[in-house]
Write a structure and sequence with these properties.
The structure is a single chain. The protein has 211 residues and is mainly alpha-helical. It folds into 2 domains: 80 residues, Cytochrome c-like domain (Cytochrome Bc1 Complex, Chain D, domain 2, Orthogonal Bundle), CATH 1.10.760.10; 89 residues, Cytochrome Bc1 Complex, Chain D, domain 2 (Orthogonal Bundle). The protein is 54% helix and 0% strand. It is built from 10 helices and no strands. Helix 8 packs antiparallel against helix 10. The longest helix is centred in the first third of the chain and has 23 residues. The radius of gyration is 21 Å and the shape is globular. The termini are far apart. It comes from Candidatus Methylophosphatis roskildensis. GO terms for molecular function: electron transfer activity; heme binding; iron ion binding. InterPro entries: Cyt_c-like_dom, Cyt_c-like_dom_sf, Cytochrome_c4-like, Cytochrome_c_Oxidase_Subunit. Keywords: Electron transport, Heme, Iron, Metal-binding, Periplasm, Signal, Transport.
Length: 211
């Protein structure tokens, strides 16, 4: 009886150790790069620096955020995706969890080639909204979550500095319209609802120039 209990304990310990080893396993960089080249490069660039404003730059983005977005694009267990996008939904359909973590780590390790602000007339408006918000409208400063240079906080808030202005503008409008709803606690939807089109455009252009 004692021997049987000991064997069961050893078997359990071995299983737990294997589970921990699997959980701690790091993504395969070579496989991730190959997947990025064959699956992602056409739209986002092989190094995550896309050349079209409609496609976001992924280089230098936090791995935690990238992984969450990939997961959100994928429908699972008979439920629709948390982030609805027909193109991305098709791209992630065949990816498993390890693939997503590998891609997230790969693009996070790439160097961002940042954009720049292009409209000098709206810089002051964009800067005020980003750094101070608008207390009269209950609009918080973007810098409070995304940082003074738009670098964000890993596992909490994404990097937004240097992103295409057109893409940032499109996402803010999607949040405002409820077309994008994968923000925790509706945080971005609540914020975007308080912003006008000119404010969104000015803010997006300012963010593009952050370093």
């Amino acid at each position: 009886m004692i021997l049987r209990s000991l064997m069961l304990s050893l078997a359990f310990a071995a299983g737990a150790a294997q589970a921990e080893e699997k959980a701690a396993a790091k993504p395969d960089p070579a496989k991730a790069q190959q997947t990025a080249t064959t699956l992602c490069a056409a739209c986002h660039g092989a190094d995550g620096n896309s050349v079209a404003a409609v496609n976001p730059k992924l280089a230098g983005q936090h791995a935690e955020y990238l992984y969450k977005q990939l997961k959100n694009f994928k429908a699972a267990d008979g439920k629709p995706a948390d982030r609805n996008n027909a193109i991305m939904g098709g791209m992630v359909a065949a990816l498993d969890d390890d693939d997503m973590k590998g891609l997230a780590a790969y693009f996070a390790a790439q160097k961002l080639k940042p954009e720049s602000a292009k409209d000098a007339k709206t810089v002051e408006v964009g800067q005020k909204l980003y750094r101070a918000g608008d207390s009269a409208k209950g609009l918080p400063a973007c810098a409070g979550c995304h940082g003074p240079a738009g670098a964000g906080i890993p596992a909490q808030y994404p990097r937004i500095g240097g992103q295409y202005a057109d893409y940032t503008e499109a996402q803010l409008k999607a949040f405002r319209a409820g077309e994008r709803a994968n923000d925790p606690n509706q945080m971005m939807r609540v914020i975007a609802l308080k912003m006008t089109d000119p404010e969104i455009k000015a803010l997006s252009d300012y963010i593009a120039g952050l370093r």
